[in-house]
Design brief:
about 120 residues; Heat Shock Protein 90; six-stranded antiparallel sheet; about 40% helix
Length: about 120
């Protein structure tokens, strides 16, 4: 899918299980390297994507939701963007303060709204 100024690098639809957190991290790291991000930033991508996808898995478990978790990675006009969407109800409790603190510490631009997490890193290539 290509939109003006944006190009999707990968779209993942993952079952909400901890085994698939690693898959999301590996794909995100590969996409970040292909975009030319430096290794420190790639390490930050690995950590943040792992925490955000693990959060989605925990929200699904807490709400009893078996639907998939969506992860979209894209090049957005000079930024590497990762979007994680879960399908847990919006009012699902989110008690992962440590994970979200890690995410916001290593991501220059992070948005969390219910089950949607958007992470952005400026491209450095």
């Amino acid at each position: 899918m290509t939109v003006v100024g944006e190009q999707t690098a990968a779209t993942l639809t993952l079952p909400p299980s901890v085994e698939h957190v690693r898959t999301a991290r590996l794909v995100a790291v590969t996409a970040a390297r292909r975009l030319g991000l430096d290794e420190q930033t790639v390490d930050d991508v690995r950590l943040a994507v792992g925490e955000a996808v693990a959060r989605a898995v925990r929200r699904h478990a807490s709400a009893g939701v078996d639907d998939d978790v969506d992860v979209v990675l894209r090049d957005d006009s000079g930024a590497f963007v990762v979007e994680i969407d879960d399908r847990a109800p919006a009012d699902t409790p989110d008690d992962d303060e440590v994970g979200l603190a890690l995410v916001t510490a290593v991501v220059p631009d992070a948005e969390v709204q219910g089950g949607r997490v958007v992470l952005r890193w400026p491209a450095t290539a």
